[in-house]
Specification:
By secondary structure, the chain is mainly alpha-helical. It has 13 helices and 7 strands.
């Protein structure tokens, strides 16, 4: 995909055959063809000023871009203007230096190429071409170009686990001051912090994931910087913590029904909300305790125990997607480490059986056993099961799922949102949630 240093603006605007975004509601079936092969940075010359201007490009389907070595920066070509080529070379060197400054999980194993590409995708999504850190959009094109609290939280933890704690703090800081409702964070935000305004209901799980990420990022910070991290993320901790404590204040201690990662209206409590709430309460207690707030930490720890007992009573021992339901959901992995200190009663056995009902023709998993279409594998749920397997010490299963993910990347080596029944990539790439989960799995295996 060489264009002599000129990338037409149309490349950043890929037409989609649907209007919904990264929601994975069954109503979106059947998935459209791949919307992008990946995300790269490009530089073009502003002829009025004579300086180079950088921007992100969604790589069109079926194209393999010429990238500068060790980077996701588009090679402008030998005939590019000097300022344009210099800017691209400097951007590529920043990416290489960034990777080198951290760690590459699985660097000595068979998945090193997958890890390096995932890191480059994560860097490209969380850094502007000139190096400014930003909260990542879920994917680089169309209606995925919003910031989901869940996706950003996982990206922040992946950044922290790979040695980029300061970038992780900057990502989470995006949520300091965004609009939050009594029912939770909004499902999606624009890059300027405003609400997407697409009618999706707020989601309680966002508060849980942001607290989890805040605790993980704080724990990963160098000892001399921990207090600064706590200070920078204090407002996120307070807002998300208040949401979860209020949401679990009913006498039965169960959180109310809320839209979860399926992004559908829910009338019954789902595992996709209950598990992030538990994870978030645990993180809240840890954050209070680490900051020396003993009373607040004790209150959060007590609430965690009460909510855990209530959730185990309602969902155990079979752990269905909905309270009182029969079918299981990929959120079952969230009832296991690393999201819980230990597998909740009956959850590991249920999880090991659950994949059979979610298996898809290409070899990956669907979001749940009652998912509305039967052909497409979803990479975030497949990667989520890989992470759970690694956390349980089931390295064989973790590697098998990573092998599958590595063999179903796009032409740029990125992880797509879906894989079709014929094994071809589908929808959009890279999906930052999947990218982050792969890095976390490899770090867990290390």
């Amino acid at each position: 995909m060489r264009h002599g240093g000129r990338i037409p603006a149309v490349l950043g605007i890929v037409a989609l055959a649907l209007t919904a975004g990264a929601s994975i509601a069954p109503s979106l079936r059947p998935p459209v063809a791949l919307a992008s092969e990946g995300l790269v940075h490009s530089w073009v010359l502003d002829e009025d000023s004579g300086s180079a201007v950088g921007f992100a490009v969604a790589v069109p389907t079926g194209t393999s871009p010429d990238l500068l070595p060790g980077s996701h920066v588009l090679d402008p070509g030998a005939d590019a203007a000097p300022a344009e080529r210099r800017a691209a070379l400097e951007a590529a060197e920043r990416q290489r230096a960034w990777v080198a400054a951290g760690t590459v999980p699985g660097a000595d194993g068979p998945h090193a190429p997958l890890a390096r590409t995932a890191l480059l995708d994560l860097h490209t999504a969380t850094h502007s071409p000139d190096g400014e850190v930003q909260a990542p959009q879920a994917a680089p094109t169309g209606a995925w170009r919003y910031i989901w609290p869940r996706d950003a939280a996982f990206a922040a933890v992946a950044l922290a686990r790979t040695g980029h704690a300061d970038d992780a703090v900057a990502v989470l800081s995006f949520f300091d001051g965004v609009e939050v409702t009594p029912q939770g964070y909004h499902a999606r935000y624009r890059p300027d912090g405003s609400v997407a305004g697409d009618g999706r209901a707020p989601q309680l799980d966002g508060a849980g994931w942001l607290l989890w990420a805040t605790a993980e990022v704080t724990a990963a910070a160098p000892p001399t910087e921990v207090e600064d991290v706590r200070r920078r993320l204090a407002d996120v901790t307070a807002v998300a913590g208040d949401l979860l404590m209020t949401a679990t204040s009913a006498p039965d201690r169960l959180p109310p029904p809320s839209s979860d990662y399926w992004e559908l209206p829910e009338t019954r409590l789902t595992l996709g909300t209950a598990m992030p709430v538990l994870t978030g309460l645990d993180a809240l207690a840890t954050l209070h305790e680490g900051a020396g707030r003993a009373a607040e930490g004790a209150a959060a720890r007590t609430r965690l125990g009460e909510v855990r007992d209530a959730v185990v009573h309602v969902f155990g021992p079979t752990w269905p997607r909905e309270a009182g339901g029969r079918h299981q959901d990929a959120a079952l992995a969230m009832a296991l480490p690393p999201f819980q200190d230990a597998a909740l009663p009956g959850a590991e056995a249920a999880w090991r059986l659950s994949a059979r009902g979610m298996a898809r023709p290409a070899g990956g998993l669907a979001p749940g056993q009652e998912w509305g279409e039967s052909d497409y594998s979803w990479t975030p749920q497949t990667a989520l099961y890989a992470l759970a397997a690694a956390s349980l010490g089931d390295d064989a299963q973790a590697h098998d799922r990573l092998d599958w993910l590595a063999s179903h990347t796009t032409l740029t080596g990125s992880i797509p949102e879906k894989v079709g029944p014929d094994g071809g990539s589908a929808q959009v790439a890279p999906l930052i949630w999947s990218t982050s989960l792969v890095l976390l799995t490899l770090a867990e295996l290390d």
